[in-house]
Structure to design on (331 residues):
């Protein structure tokens, strides 16, 4: 029977339950889980058996949340090196550990670089609006402040899970002037906004952005008000599977995130939908700020070819994720 160490199971539970959340963080947690699984492996030390076991762990980790491609990309990064590695059991474990550490280190560095590049695109006196809680978007806003740009930031609440409160808190802690608004205030506030900065869960080869539900409404309001919208996205948020026409599954989360379980009990039969993400078309995006530079959304396919060579590795894993949740909606 397939077993994972408790620490790995706990990471998987935390990703599913959104204790660990944010596309970059779940990617790093996925890499860390593979590393722990390899280090704690107690089965037969035959290299092929070990590789087979790690393939199962990879599928298990990827099946936790279906939308952010950062997770299968992180897992594919580690697994590619394991698949291609020769040598005995110990060497294979070392390969997994090294690859996971490399991914985590590079990922953190990418967030920092995006902060530096993105901050240059803001000016002192700018009023910025952001949605949800994105570490990459925050990196830009906080770096702007650190580099002497006095900005003001409107943060949406981001119903139903209120991740906007984390953004608000972290901005204030960094000394950035922040103002919390309800999601429904976005269109009226947009008149006072100079730039929008949001994060990304997945970017498809045609330059569409899949991000926290509500992002497309923010983009629509920005477009109408002629406010520029920037996306902060590490390159592992780009979907190699989308090049091959694989759709992105929009995660549907439980109804008790929308209304309290108690209320649901008192009102049986109430129908609720809770899609966690939505799709912003490339036409509403001015630029994507990545660690390799600022690109127009339509250059997503080039980034994918340069970085992944149109690899099928991540595609397979995305498909596993998609098969996992039949109730979801595909983009
Ligand atoms: P970073 C989050 O998803 C939000 O949609 C956020 O914009 C995106 O991940 C990227 O976040 P969730 O995990 O990687 O809260 O920039 O559902 O932190």
């Amino acid at each position: 029977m397939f077993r994972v160490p408790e620490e790995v199971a706990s990471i998987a539970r935390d990703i599913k339950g959104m204790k660990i959340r944010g596309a970059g963080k779940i990617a790093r947690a996925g890499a860390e889980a593979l590393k722990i699984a390899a280090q704690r492996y107690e089965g037969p030390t035959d290299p092929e058996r070990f590789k087979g076991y790690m393939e199962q762990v990879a599928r298990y980790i990827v099946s936790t949340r279906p939308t952010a491609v950062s997770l299968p990309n992180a897992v594919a990064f580690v697994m590619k090196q394991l698949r291609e590695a020769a040598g005995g059991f110990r060497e294979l474990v070392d390969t997994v550990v090294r690859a996971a550490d490399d991914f985590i280190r590079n990922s953190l560095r990418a967030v920092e670089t995006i902060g530096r590049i993105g901050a240059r695109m803001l000016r002192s006196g700018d009023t910025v609006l952001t949605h949800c809680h994105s570490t990459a978007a925050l990196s830009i806003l906080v770096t702007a402040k650190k580099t002497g740009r006095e900005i003001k930031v409107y943060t949406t609440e981001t119903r139903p899970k209120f991740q906007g409160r984390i953004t608000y808190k972290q901005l204030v802690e960094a000394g950035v002037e922040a103002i919390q608004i309800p999601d429904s205030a976005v269109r009226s506030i947009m008149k006072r906004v100079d730039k929008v900065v949001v994060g990304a869960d997945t970017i498809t080869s045609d330059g569409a952005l899949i991000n926290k539900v509500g992002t497309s409404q923010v983009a629509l309001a920005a477009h109408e008000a002629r406010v520029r919208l920037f996306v902060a996205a590490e390159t592992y948020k780009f979907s190699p599977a989308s090049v091959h026409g694989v759709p992105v599954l929009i995660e549907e989360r439980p109804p008790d995130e929308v209304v309290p379980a108690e209320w649901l009990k008192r009102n049986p039969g109430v129908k609720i939908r809770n899609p966690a993400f939505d799709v912003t078309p490339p036409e509403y995006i001015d630029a994507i700020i990545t660690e390799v530079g600022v690109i127009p959304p339509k250059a997503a396919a080039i980034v994918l070819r340069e970085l992944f060579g149109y690899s099928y590795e991540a595609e397979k894993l995305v498909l596993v994720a998609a098969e996992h949740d039949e109730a979801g909606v595909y983009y």
In short: The longest strand covers residues 152-156.
